[in-house]
Structures are given as C-alpha cells and as structure tokens.
Amino acid sequence: MVVDASVLAAWVFRERNAQDAHGLIQGQDLHAPRLLAYELANIARTKSLRDPQKAADIEASLADAMAMDIHWHEVDHVAVLRLAMATGLSTYDASYLWLARTLAVPLVTFDERLRTAR
Known about the structure:
This protein is mainly α. It has one domain: 5'-nuclease (Rossmann fold). It has seven helices and four strands; from the N terminus they run E-H-H-E-H-H-E-H-H-E-H. It has a two-stranded parallel ribbon with strand order 1-4. Strands 2-3 form a two-stranded parallel ribbon. It starts with a strand and ends with a helix.
C-alpha cells in the first residue's frame, strides 16, 4: 500500500490518532514517493518549533520513520501535474495518488480530499 504523510506522521510522532494509523499500516508492505521523507522532516521541524523541549524526541521519531522498511519511489512529475489538475489536488497529494494508481495498490491517508479523489 501507499502511505501518505498524514498516516505515517500520526504513527511516528504519536499523535492522537496514532493507534488508528498503526492499525492501517501494521504488517503492510509500505510504498511512498520520496516526497514523504521531506514532508515528515517538515512536520518534525514544525513540531520542534512549537515544542522545543521535545525537539530531541521529535528528531528521534523522525529517524525511526526514516529507518522503516518503506519502498521509496520516484514519480513522473508531468503525470503528477496532470493528475493534480484533473483532481484539484496539490501536486504533493497527487504524488501519492499517482503512485497508488501506478502500483495498483491501496492508498492510506487521513486526508479527506485525497481519500475521495481516488
């Protein structure tokens, strides 16, 4: 399955819906566009700025996420642009949708717009 930042961040940063996220990805073969790593790093940055006393824990959680067994993929950026234009999604979200469609696997997300664009 393709996992997006909303689900993986919930799990690795122990957000309120972490158990839901874990239930979705546990035991699954995870795929993601390389974009996911940048999105997780940005989420870690935002969390660290908001809560500096937890920055070391947040950094450790990011490192744990990067060590997960995720199959990283490049995307066809022109195809992603076309998909974004057709669906009204951002190109970031369209990257996940494009990959899921290309691999013919489910996409797991907590993002309602992305979930309904499938």
